[in-house]
């Protein structure tokens, strides 16, 4: 089973700053079958990025994904107040779909 | 627009069973699979598995075999998750999520299952 490790656990930033979130896989995720989700308190998660770098419908272009193999990154270009949330990566390479443990982006 | 509406919160005693529903609208139900995801209180997301809505074939993740059953009623565009022999550690919010290109592209609002004596 592929294990995903996200870092850092918590990112403290101010609105307008750039956020860089990491997701590392225990083995290579082929064809970049890596997705990112955002979850706000009391809400269901929302798909942001799939295929490592393709934005889902309606997702602002300040969100971007990159990476391949075992190392993937979610970048939020300039943090808006509504971006403070928990972010999860998910691999869907194998017949499973494991999630990382999450990174909380909080207001500094 | 795609909508997944889940059944309401449930309170059960240990050893009981529960069946959660997820009613889909706004798309052709059998064209996309359905993922199930668990989130324990204050914890992260766990992928439980998915069901092929065309064939009814379920795939269960490690740790979700035996007591967990995915099923369908395609006549009413609804997916179900049944959990038997409930334990306190099954207390969680359970989400259904449409499976498109293997990702969870649209999510239900979640169903809280509380297991307590």
Mean pLDDT across every amino acid position of chain B = 97
Give the largest interface. Answer: A-B, 23 and 22 residues
CA-based shape of chain B: globular
The main pleated sheet of chain A reads as: 6 strands, mixed
Structure annotation, total helices of chain A: 0
The secondary-structure element order of chain A is: EEEEEEEEE
Task: Report the count of strand segments of chain A.
Answer: 9
Content of β-strand of chain A: over 45%
Largest sheet of chain B: 7 strands, mixed
* Helix-strand topology string of chain B: EEEEEEEEEEE
Q: How is the quaternary structure best described?
A: heterodimer
Strand percentage of chain B lies at over 45%
What does this structure look like?
- The complex is a heterodimer of chains A (108) and B (117).
- In chain A, strands 2-9-8-4-5-6 form a six-stranded mixed β-sheet, with no helix packed on it. A three-stranded antiparallel β-sheet of chain A has the order 1-3-7, with no helix packed on it.
- Chain A has strands at residues 4-7, 10-13, 19-29, 34-39, 46-50, 54-55, 63-76, 86-91, 103-107.
- Chain A has 108 residues and is an all-beta fold.
- Helices cover 0% and strands 53% of the residues of chain A.
- Chain B is an all-beta fold and 117 residues long.
- The radius of gyration of chain B is 13 Å and the shape is globular.
- In chain B, strands 2, 4, 5, 6, 9, 10 and 11 form a seven-stranded mixed β-sheet that branches. In chain B, strands 1-3-8-7 form a four-stranded antiparallel β-sheet, with no helix packed on it.
- Chain B is 0% helix and 54% strand.
- The relative contact order of chain B is 0.32.
- Chain B has no helices and eleven strands.
- Chain A binds chain B through residues 1, 33, 35, 37, 39, 44-47, 50-51, 56, 88, 90, 92, 95-102, and chain B through 35, 37, 44-47, 50, 59, 61-62, 95, 97, 101-110.
């Amino acid at each position: 089973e592929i294990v995903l490790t996200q870092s850092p656990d918590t990112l403290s930033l101010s609105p307008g700053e750039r956020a860089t979130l990491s997701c590392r896989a225990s083995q290579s995720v082929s064809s970049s079958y890596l997705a990112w989700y955002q979850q706000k308190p009391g809400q269901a998660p929302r798909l942001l990025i799939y295929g490592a770098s393709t934005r889902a419908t309606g997702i602002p272009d300040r969100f971007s994904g990159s990476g391949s193999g075992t190392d993937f990154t979610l970048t939020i270009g300039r943090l808006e107040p509504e971006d403070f949330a928990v972010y999860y990566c998910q691999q869907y390479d194998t017949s499973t779909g494991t999630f990382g443990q999450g990174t909380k982006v909080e207001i500094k | 627009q795609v909508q997944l509406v889940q059944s309401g919160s449930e309170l059960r005693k240990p050893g009981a069973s529960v069946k959660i529903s997820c009613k889909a609208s706004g798309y052709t139900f059998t064209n996309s699979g359905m993922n199930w995801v668990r989130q324990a209180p204050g914890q992260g997301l766990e992928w439980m598995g998915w069901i092929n809505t065309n064939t009814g074939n379920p795939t269960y993740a490690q740790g979700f075999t035996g007591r967990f059953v995915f099923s369908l009623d395609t006549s009413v565009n609804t997916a179900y998750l049944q959990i038997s022999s409930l334990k306190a550690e099954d207390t969680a919010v359970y989400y259904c999520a449409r499976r498109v290109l293997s990702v969870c592209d649209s999510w239900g609002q979640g169903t809280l299952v509380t297991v307590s004596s």
